[in-house]
Design a protein that fits this description.
Layout (H helix, E strand, L loop, with lengths): L1 E6 L6 H13 L2 E7 L10 H11 L6 E6 L3 H7 L4 E6 L2 H17 L4 E6 L9 H9 L13 H14 L1
Parallel strand pairs: 1-2, 1-4, 2-3, 4-5
């Protein structure tokens, strides 16, 4: 069975990678898809985020990286998948994700949304928090996959100097 794990991944965090690795053990094929959201102003471009994901997921043979515009359910259907993976950090994530899952179900009842709780060591982690921590000069060891850490730091420091 094939599943899609959509997200902005700006940048991919160790929490995202935790969900990806655990999902890859369950599904035959997993597409990690950068969702292009015109309402957001990402720090990293879609190609950069996809490259970070490819490097972070390089050890997972059944994971591919892609991006999409538009409705998640349309993308999932175009990939021949029937499941959407959503990571949940805390109860605060649940309300918005539950609402989105119900909307997706109303748009395409052939697509199921599966929620996966993040591992306890990543409960506090978000891309926004990683960016904020770097801008305040703190290290990000363990917060993002090691293979992308230096480039994330470099970009975020550049941004801090421009501000």
């Amino acid at each position: 069975m094939k599943a899609v794990y959509p997200g902005s991944f700006d940048p991919v965090t160790s929490g995202h990678l935790d969900i990806i690795e655990r999902s890859a053990r369950i599904f035959d094929d997993l597409v990690v898809a950068v969702a292009v959201n015109p309402k957001k102003d990402p720090m990293f471009s879609v190609p950069e985020r996809m490259q970070f994901l490819r490097e972070a997921c390089g050890h997972l043979a059944n994971v591919t990286v892609d991006y999409f515009h538009g409705l998640t359910v349309d993308y999932v259907e175009s990939q021949g998948a029937r499941a959407v993976i959503k990571g949940l950090r805390a109860i605060s994530d649940f309300e918005a994700e539950f609402q989105q899952a119900l909307m997706n179900k109303s748009l395409n009842d052939q697509v199921e949304t599966l929620f996966m709780m993040t591992s306890p060591e990543h409960l506090f982690l978000s891309s926004s928090l990683v960016k904020e921590v770097v801008e305040l000069g703190a290290p990000i060891q363990g917060l993002v996959p090691k293979v992308i850490e230096a480039r994330v730091l470099e970009r975020l420091h550049q941004r801090g100097q421009e501000a």
